[in-house]
Write a structure and sequence with these properties.
240 residues, alpha/beta, Rossmann fold, 7 helices, 7 strands
């Protein structure tokens, strides 16, 4: 199959639920010819997303895994490399905002959980794929930060995403000589199914479209972006 990602094997984490950014990325990658490894905790969800990606033209491997667990991350990467023979792209999408309360009400458990799903997962997966990419002559890691200034009642999430930016820039430096490019996408308010259902907006015209995020992910994963590394790129719609 032809396409910008026709020769690429891509792991996409956190691509679980319908109507979310992960689903859009999987479909865009599949349409561009990528071979996919789809990873999330729910076996039912990753298998559903795999069927959709196959319908869009991609080859898929569905791997249910808890990516805060080092052993499961190691097993997932070895399974992916064993199945396809290489790993070219890692999209660290796993995470999300789950703890919304004043900083003084955040418990240690809240802090650990939010940093675990947003920052630890990106670190563990990136660390595990680095040797595979080095052995293959290079690769691409795409992380997910957040656009705009920190907001109140999200202290753990804010700190996790700041950590993702630091992780991105550090790995870009360390991967430079091995041909490993590392960038982050920083979305604004996205028109995901969950956001729309929760916020019930009257007008989505100024929101960030998940298809636009997916298009940027395709560009960063492809050879078209060879000169870009260590960058945090905002995708904020029309002013949100």
């Amino acid at each position: 199959m032809s396409g910008l990602l026709a020769d690429k094997v891509a792991i996409v984490t956190g691509a679980s639920h319908e109507g979310q950014v992960g689903q859009a990325i999987l479909q865009a990658f599949a349409a561009q010819g990528a071979s996919l490894v789809i990873v999330a905790r729910s076996r039912e969800n990753v298998e559903a997303r795999a069927k959709e990606a196959e319908a869009a033209g991609g080859r898929t491997l569905a791997v249910p895994a808890d990516l805060t667990d080092e052993t499961q991350v190691q097993a997932m990467v070895e399974q992916a490399a064993g199945h396809y023979g290489k790993i070219d792209v890692l999209v660290n999408l796993a995470g999300g905002l789950t703890r919304y309360k004043p900083a003084t009400q955040h418990t240690v458990a809240d802090w650990d959980y939010e940093l675990g799903i947003n920052l630890k997962t990106a670190f563990l997966c990136s660390r595990q794929v680095f040797p595979k990419m080095q052995a293959g002559g290079g690769g691409v890691i795409i992380n997910f930060a957040r656009a705009g200034l920190p907001q109140a009642n999200m202290v753990a999430y804010n700190c996790a995403k700041a950590g993702v930016e630091a992780l991105t820039r550090t790995l870009a430096l360390e991967g430079r000589d091995a041909g490993i490019r590392v960038n982050a996408i920083a979305p604004g308010l996205v028109d995901t199914k969950s956001n729309v259902e929760m916020m019930k907006p009257k007008d989505l015209g100024r929101w960030t479209r998940r298809e636009d995020i997916a298009s940027l992910a395709v560009f960063l994963a492809s050879n078209a972006s060879k000169g870009i590394t260590g960058q945090v790129i905002g995708v904020q719609g029309w002013g949100i």
